[in-house]
Amino acid sequence: MNSGIHFVYCCIKPRNISSAQSLPGFVLISVRGLQSVLVLLTCWYVSAWVDAVWGFEFTHTDPLDPVIEEEIKEDPDVFKTIYKQLLPFSAEDDDDTRSVWVVFGENGVSAKPLLAVLSYFILSAKAKSPSLEQRLCGLQAASLYLLLLKIPGSVANKVYHQILFDTCLNMPLKCWPQDSGKKRKKDCLKSSQGDPKTGKRSKPPKKVSEEEQGVYFSPQDLLKLREGIVLLVRTLLRLLERFSLRDKPQSADSCVQSLPELSYHGLGLLCSTIHGEGDEVVFRKLLYVILMMKTQERSKPCLLAPSQAVCGARDQAMLFIGHIVDKQREATLPLLRILVQHICHQMVEKSEYRVSGAQAVGKLMAKMPCQDYAAIIKWLYSYSRNNKVAFRMFALDVALVLLEQSERDVDDTVDPELAVFLPHRFLVHNIIYNHRNDVSPTVRGHALHCLAQCLELGSQNATKCVHELFSNSKYITTLWKLYNEETLTLFKKHVSDPKTNARKSALETVMSLLKHGVISCSAENLSILSDRCRDPAVSVKKKAMQCLMDLLANREVQEAWLRGVLPAVMDSESSVQEKALECLDHVVIAHIKSQGKYRDDDTSQKLAWDLLGLMCEKCQHLSRYFSKAFSVWAPQQKFTPGFVNGLLSHTEGERAAAAWLLLAKIASCSPKLNYGTVLDTWENTIRSPVVSVTMTCHILSVLGDIASNLNDDTKTRIVGKCGTFSLPLEVISSCVDTLVRFSRSDNTQDTLRFLDRFCGELVSVCESYLSAVILQEKGAENINEDLLVKHLHTLGVASLHCPSKVGKRIFLVVQSVLTPSEQPGESMQLYELPASQPLSQFKPNSMSTVVRAQAVITLGKLCLQHEELMLKYLPVFARELEVGTELAVRSNVVVVMCDLCVRYTNTVTRYIPNISACLRDKDPIVREQTLIMLTNLLQEEYVKWKGALFFRFAIVLVDPDPAIVDLCEYCLVDLLLKKSPLMFSQHFIECIFHFNSYEKHKKYNKFLQTESRFSLKGRQNQGKRFRIYRFLLKNFTDEQRFNITTKICQDILATFVDSELPLDSDGSELLADTFDILSLKEMKLTAMSGPAAGEEPQEDEMAMAKAVLQVAQKKLVSQVQKRNFVENVIPIIISLKNMLEEQHSPVLKHLMAYLQVTMQEYRSEVKELFAADEQLAAEVEYNLKRFEKEKQQQEQQQMENQLATNVGGQTGFASPLNPRGTKGPAQTPKSADALR
Fold first, then answer.
1. How far apart are alpha carbons 251 and 278 in whole angstroms?
2. Residue 276 has what DSSP assignment?
3. Which among 915, 816, 904 has a CA at the least distance from the CA of 866?
4. How does DSSP assign 1063-1120, residue by residue?
5. Residues 6+ apart with CB under 8 A from 174
6. What are the pLDDT digits (tens) for 782-796?
7. How far apart are alpha carbons 1010 and 992 in whole angstroms?
8. Are 168 and 146 in contact (CB under 8 A)?
9. SS3 per-residue string spanning 292-322
10. Given pLDDT bands bounded at 50, 70 and 90, which one contains residue 562?
11. CA 73 to chain centre
């Protein structure tokens, strides 16, 4: 029997044997063998070797004697065999079992050499690239050591050693084959760029040695290693049941780290009372499991990819913590509070981790009693005001999760000052809603998103709390009503937030408020969604359309849906077009079925026809967008014969108008129609005493599409029906259009003959009627105004297609409608009146404004075909714009003149000042009409930015009508600026002179100032001037801002220094405006602006690369800007300051305000920059210090106000928060213009 077996049996005391003398023979032989081995070891160097191992504290061992090592290794399972023999001695419940330590002592065997030998094999397994045999022996030796610790009396025999114990716990990780470095890092999301806050690069993954990479383990080898690890873990679990770690915190922590994440039996054992504070160690380990992080030695924890395994481990950890809290409630509640705080403190900004963490916090807080729950809510309120974006975001997530739980009732255990934190109302009002105006756009948007989600929760309390914010109930006070109205007004402004995500969240919230009846589905509220379908951001447009889709079940939303979705069909972004087409197809086209399949209870079908009905009535102006959709669908062969026949079945009845609307759109691209049905419907319609304008126009459109399939007799019959003047004006226009489409043929002469024939007949009929009414004596006594307008309108539209049939008598007739004479005999002289005489200055006549306005349109159409007539009446039209008093006439004159500009560009261009003067017309309709028409001319380049046109356009930005202001901003930025990117910067300097009506400069503002209504001079108009300045500067590029600063100094400030411009009252106003402009925050380069207050960089490679680039760019731009400031600005400022001081000018305070704002960026360089003027440097220093002191006082006052209205301070238990966390997010600093 080898020495290893001798060693085993000497340590064994079989059960029920009283003394060593009663051992069987083979046992006695084993003991004698063991004694001879111990004598042999003592004779050699074993005693010194054991002392050396203990001296090194089991961190290092010298090689064991090869002979002894080989004898022990002859049996590969030697330690496993010893383990099995010693296992019965580890039970404490068997009183008959004699202690193994007594047997060891009786035989002179000490634990000291035994532990030394075990440590040798344990450390051998931890060596570099150990073999399979070394790993197995190390695992078995570690299991045997833990078993010895479990045997009663191990502490007294000094078996426990912290380093050896921790080494054994670390054996599974060391013995199991590790993957390569890349694979080990696979699940880690931390960037290789390092920590963005410290700027340090993380250490590269340690390369695996060639020897370890060359080791190969077969499945059988891995199975053996697995069995060894399982044995070690089981032994550890048995050990933890009896062996106390109360005074061994380091070993308890090692136990937690060594146990697999799902060994919750062992973690549960550590939480028992025999281990003292073991539950705190366990909670600390599970913290990172809940956070889905991986802890690493001497480095920050890194995020793990949220795989199924990681999420499963997180869920198991939550169940385990809940079990421990239920089992040991009083002992674990303080730890539970601290755990919740640490989860909040270590939360990252990534959304999927925040959502997971918030769910975990909600489950943990559900285990708390009301007192602790309220205390945590109080702490959460302070946490939500931390200056870190991630903290404020996570606080919103936690609040939303807590709202899903049942509301806590106040009981006797809750302190009175904490009772206010229990209701859901506190979470909704004080945490979620209070962040709607957060300084960070990310938090702002998320707060709005959470507010919308509150309405989707099953909790009635949360919904009720949101209703309170917008309620207008008669039971609430007037003050509360005013607050709610202000809340709704401010809330609507969030849909215009500068940040895209904030706007999307605001739209989602508005949709939820409308959906749940918190706010009414009024046209004003619904326009918030429909208007955002034209947002500059693509994602916002799509979000707005989706919100409208979600609300479409409400009948009140249908019109807003059409106004939002239909225009998006012609959006500049193809993805938005596709979204709009998808919505139209899903809601309208897909639910059009034949008459026999229509069901009133089918909401989808009813909705489709209701929308089509709206397009035939209230939303007729959107028809052109609908036509665009069909032009896209036509090549797709979307409209089958079955679809067309189904539409035809609806052409009679209540859905007839909607059916003809669709037929009018698809007639040109659909398969062969049933022409008989179309013609029969036309006959019935024309004979009907009540004509549906919309449906008749659509029928005429279908007739025009099928013109090639109609014979001449049918066309003639249809044209004959169109010749009646009993039809409405819109139908008459459609009739003429259809007539023109009938005339189309391959032979141009045939087309002209057809038009001369039928359109000539219409012109002749109109001429005869108008002559009889207007030119003949007593013809106007019994005038029919409606019939007169129809003849004028028909004359205008028909004359465009047969100019050869229009004679001078027709010109006279139309002119006579505008300026009739008293006697018929004078009629021919009227045509020879001076052309410069305005229409409105002729003798008043009996014609109404409606007739005169229609006559202007008809005269304009005649001018389009006859240049000599245009030359005669163009000055008349221009004069009419100046002195005319009739709104309809002026509006139509603007349209006529702009149409003539397209036809006769060079001639009409000189009258553009007359047209642009209507931008300040007293009637908003004329102003809007002029703005639209001029924008179209500028887009097509029929008109250039000459003279005062730009400044008249810019002054519309301060129009009293907000709708016109919005339209002007859209025209300038989205239409005209894209075509001329330098437009704003080229006119900005002259804007300063023009709006101050300053004409003394030799270069600027040299055009005539004939219109006082375009002047913004004076202090009373300062706000309007700066509204324009800010708008222009906001749309500058950084290059333009830099150049305009230099140009202002050279062209304005320097001219006063060189005495080119006098410093009189007008000059002082101009100079004050200039300094105030230079102080505007819009003048600051965007490259010099840091991230938004409260924003933190995201820890990903793209964000970090962008941040590094921005820092480098900012540094470069700062150097260039500083050089320009020193070389070009400071000398002028110093000279100008001396001049202003000499004259005691009030402009001096504007100059100092500008320096105060500008020198914020050069706070430490004031004396250096103003070395040429020490007094000015001292004044600037004093002003800066005073400003900083005032700012601190304001911040302190804000803090006091917050504390006065605060619901309470922090709780007394441990908090990982920064002390500054209670100050809330940093507020936006005052703008530069406000510092004045």
1. 10
2. S
3. 904
4. -SHHHHHHHHHHHHHHTSGGGS-GGG--SPTT----SSHHHHHHHHHHHHHHHHHHHH
5. 125, 126, 138
6. 678 888 888 898 888
7. 18
8. yes
9. CEEEECCEEEEEECCCHHHHHHHHHHHHHHH
10. very high
11. 68
In this model, does residue 956 exceed pLDDT 90?
yes
Burial 334-350 (b: 16+ CB within 10 A, else e): ebbbbbbbbbbbbbbbb
Q: Which amino acid is at 939?
A: Q
Closest alpha carbon to 1025 in 987, 1061, 993: 993
- The token pair that represents 60 in the structure block: 């290092």
* DSSP state for residue 997 in the 8-state scheme: T
Which of 428, 430, 347, 338 lies closest to 388 in space, CA to CA? 347
- Name the nearest CA neighbour of 693 among 704, 685, 702, 684: 685
Q: What angle do CA 1200, 1203, 1209 make, to 5 degrees?
A: 145
Residue 585, sorted as left (phi over 0), alpha (psi -120 to 50) or beta, turns out to be alpha
Instruction: Retrieve residue 1233's tokens.
Output: 């213009």
Rounded CA separation 658/441 (Å): 45
DSSP code of 188?
A: B
Closest CA to 1093 of 962, 912, 1224, 948: 1224
Q: Rounded to the nearest 5 degrees, what angle is found at the Cα of 970, between the Cα atoms of 969 and 973?
A: 80
- Contact in structure between 529 and 548 (CB atoms under 8 Å): yes
One-letter amino acid of 686: I
9: its two tokens: 């049996």
pLDDT band at residue 109 under the 50/70/90 scheme: low
Ranges 115-124, 1024-1033, 1175-1184: which has the least confidence:
1175-1184
Q: Pick left, alpha or beta for residue 980 (phi over 0 → left; psi -120 to 50 → alpha; otherwise beta).
A: beta
Residue entry with tokens 């300097």: 989
User: Which amino acid is it at 144?
Assistant: L
Q: For residues 693 and 691, what is the distance between their CA atoms, to the nearest angstrom?
A: 6
User: Given a cut of 60, is residue 253 above it in pLDDT?
Assistant: yes
One-character DSSP codes across 587-645: HTGGG---GGG--TT-HHHHHHHHHHHHHHTTTGGGHHHHHHHHHHHGGGT---HHHHH
| CA-wise closest residue to 173 among 251, 229, 254, 236 | 229
Backbone angles phi, psi at 324, to 5 degrees: -65, -40
Which residue, chain included where needed, has tokens 């009446």? Answer: 873
- Which of 487-496, 856-865, 890-899, 940-949 shows the lowest mean pLDDT across its residues? 487-496
Distance CA 1236, CA 1233 (A): 6
- Beta bridge mates, 304: 188
CA–CA dist 256, 169 (Å, integer) = 9
Residues 361 and 367: their CA atoms lie apart, in Å, by: 10
